[in-house]
Amino acid sequence: MGKQINYWMDYNDFVVLAQKALEMGCVIYRRCAEKDGRLAFGRDISVVAPEVYGYWFYLPQAGEIVIGTRGGREYVDVFDNTALIEAGFSCVDAETKKISRSRLWCSTGFYDKDGEFIKRPEELTRVYNTLARFAKKLAPYTEVTRSYVSRWGDNCGETVEYRKKEYVSQSCIDKMAEGYELVT
């Protein structure tokens, strides 16, 4: 459980969101892409790279960060941390003409080894809420037309279109005009 906003946002828009997280005192951790298996992290925007889609915004004053090792690679244990906001940007795949959804997410809390619930600190909630509002400015609520193949009723097997509101950045809207599809 936690707080989450889903969005379609490209790398350039995400850099602006990550810069906002840095301004709010976050340290950015990047998913492991290094050959030595170590996580990359930093207090400047250079840690954000277009080939790595997954990040964590760590707020030091909200608590310690738990980093584990699996298969010789470091990872951030999101389930035992209350000082992290998971973040990412959409993969815009030119070959398939698909744009993946990404999100901003933070945990409500976790149960420690004694079974006590450790709640997310208020400082992190404030940072998350500010970043979520900022993400909504970068990727405003936009009505998009989606479709699916019906599996029920009189129109079973037919493609059905419907309208839905989603958080989509202008760059992704422009890609949709070129025939790209938003995928979850």
Give your account of this protein's structure.
With 184 residues, this protein is α+β, with helices and mostly antiparallel strands. The protein folds into two domains: 137 residues, no CATH class; 36 residues. It is built from three helices and 15 strands. The strands form five sheets. Strands 1-10-7-4-2-3 form a six-stranded antiparallel beta sheet, covered by helices on one side. Helix 1 packs antiparallel against helix 2. The protein is globular and about 55 Å long.
Class of secondary structure makeup: alpha+beta
Q: What integer value in Å does the Rg equal?
A: 18 Å
Overall 3D geometry? globular
- Neighbour order of strands in the largest sheet: 1-10-7-4-2-3
Helical segment tally?
3
Number of domains: 2
Number of strands: 15
Mean pLDDT: 89
Distance between the termini: 19 Å
Helical content stands at 10-25%
Strand content: 35-45%
Succession of helices and strands: EHEEEEEEEEEEEHEEHE
Oligomer: single chain
**Main sheet: strands, sense, barrel:** 6 strands, antiparallel
Which residues form runs of ≥5 with pLDDT under 50?
none
